[in-house]
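RECORD TYPE: protein structure
NAME: 5-formyltetrahydrofolate cyclo-ligase
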Amino acid sequence: MQNISNQKKMLRQKMRQLRIENQILQQKKNKQLNRNIVQYIHKKHFRSQKVAFFWPLEFEADIRDSLHELYRQGYRILLPETPPVGLALQFHLWYPEVQLRPGRYKTLYPDTEIMHPQIIMLPLLAFDRKGNRLGYGGGYYDRTLAVYPTVKTAGIAFSYQEVSTVPVEKFDCSLQTIITETEIIYSQKD
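PREDICTED:
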């Protein structure tokens, strides 16, 4: 039997390829995904809250419409800065006119005030119905969620990224909610 680390590595490779193959589907379903993100925020959270998102990398869900819509509605939107390996993410205030700086791993973030989020929306490669997520393997979000144990969490994905079981290790943090273009899945009390 393979160890969990190898299982995760193989699943990452499979899901990265699947995401590349599903680019046309993602473009077609992106509008509904963004609607579900905004619906979730409206249903669960007050306007005064600070919501951390991510600026999409190539082949990730394009959530920029959600950022713009929620900003227009008065939410404070935060984007992460990826620090050196071993540290937690820092979240910077975002607004439409802000200049984004290149960060580690081709990420982009605003060089603005650092704020503490109350909700963190995470990218992922795969998820299961228990709220387990497979990320890129750097552990940044797991370290970040350990720093912010009381924040609400929601993973953002397309429905094709669901798997029966995500292999997990003791340091992997599960998510309260997964938002896809077809549904909002509540895996834990939210």
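COMMENT: The two ends are 35 Å apart (CA to CA).
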